[in-house]
Amino acid sequence: MRALGVIRRRCGWGTGNTSPVIVMQPVLEIYAPVGFDLWPVAEFEPFGFLPLSGELSSAEVGTAVMRIAGCNDIDPDGDRSPRPADVRGSFLHGLLTFDHLFAAGGLRVVDNSTGVTFLPGCCDGLEDWRDWYQLVNDGGLLGFGHDPTSPVAERFGDTVRLTVNAEQSESPVIELSVAELRHLLAGVERDLVDFLALAADWTSRHLPDHCAPVTAALARVFDLPPPAVPPKP
Prior knowledge:
This protein has helices at 2-11, 58-71, 87-97, 131-138, 178-206, 211-221; strands spanning 22-30, 48-51, 105-111, 116-118, 141-143, 152-156, 159-163, 173-177. It is of the alpha+beta class. It has a 4-stranded antiparallel beta sheet with strand order 2-1-3-4, covered by helices on one side. Strands 5-6-7-8 form a 4-stranded antiparallel beta sheet. The model is unreliable at 1-17 (pLDDT under 50).
């Protein structure tokens, strides 16, 4: 019972603290958009992470759309139609035609009581965020990368342990209850739903000729229903 009490205090349960101790966010891995001019984007440090939510600025939404489209900007093979002639349509072609879409990133977890941050690994993708529910419901282990950095999530009974780097014997860890993880995943879904609503409005203004298909593709990335597309002005 003492161990569970520690977990409850670290997650802020029953303490009257309105600021969550452990925070989970859906994040995109971002590179610096040097020379990108198809639509307005924000400036970011290379290989940083952009949290997705309903609080993003218009330029940050543009950056997210750019990054997700860029992850899928691969030359068509024999199973897909050729790229359109226009530059914007060509860049969006993979996002709109691939059956299985990819978004570099994943879920970032921060323990504000210890300063430990659990980041997505090299084998992670935000399109797989629902895999965390397998850990909640069935237990086992989720691996998100490989040497030299291997983030791992494991369930032990009613406790989930997030190991920042399984390649290190003394790696920092974050521990929380299965119930708290389920609560955090519900928050992740709300963040993604709110982001999609923002993205639908953004595409109606910046990509009016591709608004519906781009919005639907973004929803497919996150395995969520597409939001309503605003009418063309």
